[in-house]
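Protocol step 4 of 6: structure prediction from sequence.
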Amino acid sequence: MNRKITYIIIFLFSACKAFAQGEIVECEDTCTHIHGIDISHYQGEVFWETIGNNTRNAYVYIKATEGGDRIDKRYENNILTARKYGLKVGSYHFYRAKTPQLLQLKNFVTQCLPEEQDLIPLIDVETKTGLSDEAFRDSLFKFLALVEDYYHQKPLVYTGTNFYNRYLLGRLNDYKLMIAQYTDYEPILNDERDITIWQYTGKGHINGIKGFVDKSRFMGQHSLREIKFIPFQEPRKKRKEYTYFD
């Protein structure tokens, strides 16, 4: 039998065997980039001790808030427990462009306490909420400025490749980007902006979470120290319960 054909048969047999045993090869199993996840209440109960023992995943962004009054019901437990088991943690806010910026800021900063952060805040930008392009950008940039003023550092901005190219092209040069693109090839923005983190799948797997989870990795030579949260002196703010998700 041809040696090449033999190798192919062995590879396919091994792959089928791994699949049958429930072993799933993930991106972090085959490369040396710095990997992490982001989660919300949709992941349900997370077994942080198990995830903390996974040395291939170094960080996690945890959903804190959305709009002006929504708080992720698992946020407080998630961020405290994730840190306990050694993960570098950051918090994210899902931005709603029609909601007043100060109301959204109040919602976010009441949950995202400086002393609990290892990573700079992340602002999730996925929708214009029906606004015109100009009104949307004006709303977003005012909010980003408020977040920077409060935390004394620019937030990381999360968005998708298509959304960025259509609405934010050339507008976010002062911000580090996490770009979502679920393909086998790395994202390239139309303005060739540098990308710090690539969220490469929304259907990843990891021991400690049942079901799918978003996975990301740093691009090129980028590293965790670039998004490190720099502590500042600010009175501790007690969390306030607004409207929790169902």
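Step 5 (inspection) to follow. DSSP finds six helices and ten strands in the chain.
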